[in-house]
Every structure is written in structure tokens, then in C-alpha cells.
């Protein structure tokens, strides 16, 4: 299974492609799309679309995993995040890829084993699970890899449950 994880953000949108081969996780690619606040919103959204489309074309994931919507006290920030999230979902849909969303607590639980883990703990576990030499940078890339790992772990659990006779 090959998964593209996307950590949507209005300043940085992280992406990470993780592959599961024989229960071994491997980082295929990771990085972040830097969005300049000086550019108009439509230009930033086009940049997210174009760069995510390029990652999909280059790495051919089977599914896209993103972080689920969370509540924000700042409506303007939440709206900007929603725009980026919508573009990410549309970009996946253009390529006929399913999009699966996970709550932040579920992502942390799947990667660290504790839903209220600190960001640094998630980054360290991503580094360890993918056997990387260093913590992926920027932090948004590590978060995107965590989202992809969450989907792989969740899918494996669901497959095991389906195979268990009741």
C-alpha cells in the first residue's frame, strides 16, 4: 500500500508518501509547499493544487489521507484552512483517488500510542517508524508522514478484524 498523507495549512502544506511493503514502512517522499501570504488566495490555492498533483503523478499513491476538520476559535484561519483542505481533496479526486480523513487524536494514537502526544513525540516516532536518519523537516512534512502512517495502521487493523471469524 502506498499512501499520500497531507497536512493542510495556510502557510505550509506538508506532504508525505509512505509505502507499506511486507509490514515494513518506508518513506518514499516528503516535503512541504510554502505558501506566501503576499500572494492572492487563488494563487496560493493553485500552487497547492499544482504541487500536490505533481506529487501524485510522481509517486502514484493508492489513497490520500488528510487530517479531519478541527474546531478553531479563529474563524478566518479555519476558513483559509478549509480552502486548502478542499483543494487537496479535489486534487486527489481529479486522479480518482479516495480521500480518508483522520482526527488529530487518532493520528497521534496510531503513531505514538497516545492521543494527546506532543508534536515532538510524533516527530520522533515518525523518524523511528520510517527508520530515518533525522526528523523530517519542516514539521509539516513529519505531520503528513504521520497521517499516512495512521492510514496504513488503521487499514491493517481493519483487515485483521475482517479476517477474524466471529
What this model shows, in words?
- By secondary structure, this protein is α/β, with parallel strands linked by helices.
- The chain has five helices and five strands.
- A five-stranded mixed sheet has the order 3-2-1-4-5.
- Strand 2 (12-21) and strand 3 form a beta hairpin.
- The longest helix is centred in the C-terminal third of the chain and has 25 residues, at 139-163.
- The protein is globular.
- The mean pLDDT is 93.
Defining key terms:
166 residues, alpha/beta, Nucleotidyltransferase, domain 5, 5-stranded mixed β-sheet, 5 strands
Overview in brief:
With 166 residues, the protein is α/β, with parallel strands linked by helices.
Per DSSP, the total helix count is: 5
Largest sheet: 5 strands, mixed
**How do the SSEs run, as a string of H and E?**
EEEHEHEHHH
Q: Name the average pLDDT.
A: 93
- What is the domain tally? 1
The CATH superfamily is Ribonuclease H-like superfamily/Ribonuclease H
What strand order characterises the main sheet? 3-2-1-4-5
- Tell me the overall shape: globular
Low-confidence spans: none
Instruction: Tell me the CATH topology.
Output: Nucleotidyltransferase, domain 5
Protein topology:
Blueprint: E1 2-7, E2 12-21, E3 24-34, H1 41-59, E4 63-67, H2 75-94, E5 98-102, H3 104-112, H4 119-129, H5 139-163
Parallel strand pairs: 1-4, 4-5
Antiparallel strand pairs: 1-2, 2-3
